[in-house]
Amino acid sequence: MATFEDFYNDLASLVEKYEKRNTPLKLEQDLDNNIIKIFGEKITALARAKNGLNDVTELAYTTAEHHPYWNVLYNSSEIANTILEKWTDKISKEDVGEIEWAIKEIVQTLERIKEKI
User: Fold this and answer.
1) How confident is the model at residue 8, as a pLDDT?
2) What are the backbone dihedrals phi and psi of residue 40, each rounded to the nearest 5 degrees, phi first?
């Protein structure tokens, strides 16, 4: 039976073939967690950050109210989403207001968490 690591090795060989054809690709792996990422030549740090944050946001959405820390994660990811979306633009007063509201939510949740410690 093939393993995830076998799949990664096959994929790495395929990526290497494309690189030999002058198609710059970047392959990253976290085999302990069964994660493989392939990035094209035009990937930017901002695009990578947005992509990674999508996973965090998905976790926050799927655990909503079922985990004691969900609200901290959710509001933190919302703040980060706003910042990344405005990274190359100006942040608006409305954006600042939403960030302030999210920070208040985080503080309130942390107070509730501290009460239980």
Assistant:
1) 95
2) -85, 175
